[in-house]
Amino acid sequence: MTIQGPAELFARRLGIDTYREYVVFLRSESTVCRAEGLRALSRVRVACGQREIVASLNIVHGDLIGDRQAGLSESAWVALGAAAGDTVSLSHPEAVESFSAVRRKIYGGRFTGAELDAIVRDLSAGHYSSVETAAFVTACAGDRMSPAETLQLTRAMVDAGTRLAWHQRPVMDKHCVGGLPGNRTTPIVVAIAAAGGLTVPKTSSRAITSPAGTADAMEVLAPVTLTLEHMRRVVEREGGCVVWGGAIALSPADDLLIQVERPLDFDSDAQLAASVISKKVAAGSTHLVVDIPVGPTAKLRSHEAAARLARTLTSLGGAFDLRVECLFTDGSQPVGFGIGPALEALDVLDVLHNAPTACALLRARALQIAARMLEIGGRCVAGEGPARAAHLLASGAAARKFESICDAQGGRREPRRANYRKDIVATQAGAVQAIDNRRLGRVAKLAGAPASPSAGLVLQAQLGQAVVVGQPLYTIHAQSPGELEYAAAYALRNPKILEIGSP
Amino acid sequence: MTIQGPAELFARRLGIDTYREYVVFLRSESTVCRAEGLRALSRVRVACGQREIVASLNIVHGDLIGDRQAGLSESAWVALGAAAGDTVSLSHPEAVESFSAVRRKIYGGRFTGAELDAIVRDLSAGHYSSVETAAFVTACAGDRMSPAETLQLTRAMVDAGTRLAWHQRPVMDKHCVGGLPGNRTTPIVVAIAAAGGLTVPKTSSRAITSPAGTADAMEVLAPVTLTLEHMRRVVEREGGCVVWGGAIALSPADDLLIQVERPLDFDSDAQLAASVISKKVAAGSTHLVVDIPVGPTAKLRSHEAAARLARTLTSLGGAFDLRVECLFTDGSQPVGFGIGPALEALDVLDVLHNAPTACALLRARALQIAARMLEIGGRCVAGEGPARAAHLLASGAAARKFESICDAQGGRREPRRANYRKDIVATQAGAVQAIDNRRLGRVAKLAGAPASPSAGLVLQAQLGQAVVVGQPLYTIHAQSPGELEYAAAYALRNPKILEIGSP
């Protein structure tokens, strides 16, 4: 039933970021709460004009919220398209029908395609609470999804969002199975591949828990928030782009599932594959090179696990006519000197410009991926990719292509250097035996990355390198003295971020 | 690491009721958020004096929260024992170690006793987010728990909270497997059993989604928020009590699990049994009578399902030396005339006082339960319980015992009648063929129950009864004309709450 009469409430933007979960805040004494018997964590349907959402209810005691107000989380405010002065009406939501299929799955059933369609539709529409989403994710985890179910889930995820279509063929894409900071190969790969004549309409993400996402680093060099039409013009003119995918709703259910899967840390090949492949199919890609770093602190820790994931990705991609090629790479250390948007962007420029000081690891990794892309994209015969990619880079063709892409995206930008720096030095002599990627990322975040684009750190030593006492291991960059001190204090308390062993 | 220096934040009580989930609200521009790379839904450790909790983070844009403030949800404020002017320090929490056992369970493993101990300890301490709790509940649902695991879970739940011990033996208890409004047998059963010489230290709950809990109805007649010491004195003097269990932390994990299980509606015998038995074992009970209503709109819909649940309860109770007796009762309609705290209390008094207008169904149900309690408690031989219970009620012994209990709990109270009433009448002639318990409960809540104790409704017709056009089917009671109209409007839009068929 709809709540009417005395209970027409004024929408109030509270500015509370609950990520994707819609939350409505009502005063405990309000007529609506009393009359409807609403209590904390109830689900409530909120309508504003023609739009409506289902939100979780937080009850407020005291005067944070007025009696005639409905406070809205940022996500709810945006989803309702609310404006100051708007009123909202509240009602009890219908039970989420599709969740009964989740219950059956928990009792050992199999999902049908229609059930997965309905679940993903409800998820994308925000009808699942985070608790219901967690139950769905758990019900699918632990190899409980058959290959047929994974395929149907992926298809449902693609169908629930925007799907791009390109005139050109083939349409190339790349993906890296996370876990390594500073692995900023994408802009280099796109530049080489586009210079080699391939179509690479790359959409990238911003940092979620890392010090920088590809979109954050690229934004230091050119605008990345483009409309779909602008993105199309860039790709038609230059063959490639590197834009922020967040502006385009590709597989929106994926974002919601990842948000719950990440804290739960359920490491299921099926979920990872559905996530990656749904995004790429929605982006209209026909060929995908996947970089799978393998190493003790990377996501994949054994070659067996990496090979199993590769098989799942390849077979799932095949069902959508997406050709998937997996590269197993060294995941034992960062793949660049810099960690943080601008510092990673500078690494990218150094490689593109063939600077003598460019990071050899980053250069090699980007060439490896670009080479495979040129081969499977039909721009050279198998085995000749490495030479072709190296030539495109060394000749300056990739650098010129990259500049054209930046111009087409809205204009080249100069990376800025941070004002404050501090070296963290070796306190004993020896060789660098291990690098703790996770803590290294923490230092960069404490220094201000990614919110301060020029903040982060630059590695001065690599795995296996011999160092003497007092030699800089890495340099922290920050835009304020407070953040510099803050990051340095953490670094000094954690001397084994770069572990030095007997030489 | 602990966040120090510029980031000593002032605790601010926001009054936001997030139920049991601890939430901390920080401004997006705050040094802490930037420096720590904190974002929406991160988990944060919050310390205040000697206490600390792990909370979910909501990021706030704009000026709802000051830059030097940490807004706290009501649950977080209370758990930290914070006071105005207190400062809090924030840090990244350690990963919740016990959750790795949940991950293994999802991959098909079995929980060990030590793992379940650790999980329940972390749950009770508030270290699990609602998403993690949902994953645990899902991992245990659908018959995935072996009897041994269910036993260990129950033991862990008991051990995680207060455990009462009584000098007297036996210690009697009752429980009703929900689903029926107005099933207010508890005060009558306790009065009869205590009058018959049994020890019945009954702890009851308040309404969560229903129009009244036993504690709400009892509170109309006497105080129910007693300290443990006060409760002991009542039981020592009178043999029984009916108090609110919320003041005593019996099986605190149960409250947290129920909060997630209810919206997910996972109907697992193992979870239900662990919940019921852990509460009763923690309460120090030795004998338990369980009322299991069976009917089309009750929780248990078939006798097979009821019998299966009874076997699980009996066998699990046995492992804790708790003797469990299950009674299968008629769950097709409410077991009293009134629905709402005061209206149910009036039904209770009418039965205790042998009023000619007392509800026969309620009287019969209470006698049935009390009779079984007297038999298994050794106060009469098998088969003589019904006569003994009827005598204790008819003689006035139960009524006198109830008055003494009320006095011992702090003094008898008179139920108040609501100021506003409205009859909902039959619009066609015929017999009452079905009663929609769920919608009937909704009407009582719309009228103001349980927040307004005298609000609710009184049934004027029962299943099978013949009615004529214009005859009252039920009467809505409310404390304000607005609430009365509100409930009546819903009732008129739902004419089949009492369904009338051909006579």
TrEMBL record, chains A, B:
Pfam families: Glycos_trans_3N, Glycos_transf_3, PYNP_C. Signal peptide: none annotated. Keywords: Glycosyltransferase, Transferase. It catalyses: thymidine + phosphate = 2-deoxy-alpha-D-ribose 1-phosphate + thymine. GO terms for cellular component: cytosol. Residues 431-498 form the Pyrimidine nucleoside phosphorylase C-terminal domain. Its EC number is 2.4.2.4. InterPro entries: Glycosyl_Trfase_fam3, Glycosyl_Trfase_fam3_N_dom, Glycosyl_Trfase_fam3_N_dom_sf, Nuc_phospho_transferase, PYNP-like_C_sf, PYNP_C, Pyrmidine_PPase_CS, Thym_Pase_Put. GO terms for biological process: pyrimidine nucleobase metabolic process; pyrimidine nucleoside metabolic process. Gene3D superfamilies: 1.20.970.50, 2.40.40.20, Nucleoside phosphorylase/phosphoribosyltransferase catalytic domain, Pyrimidine nucleoside phosphorylase-like, C-terminal domain. GO terms for molecular function: 1,4-alpha-oligoglucan phosphorylase activity; thymidine phosphorylase activity. The keyword Glycosyltransferase applies. Belongs to the thymidine/pyrimidine-nucleoside phosphorylase family. Type 2 subfamily. HAMAP family: Thymid_phosp_2. This is Putative thymidine phosphorylase.
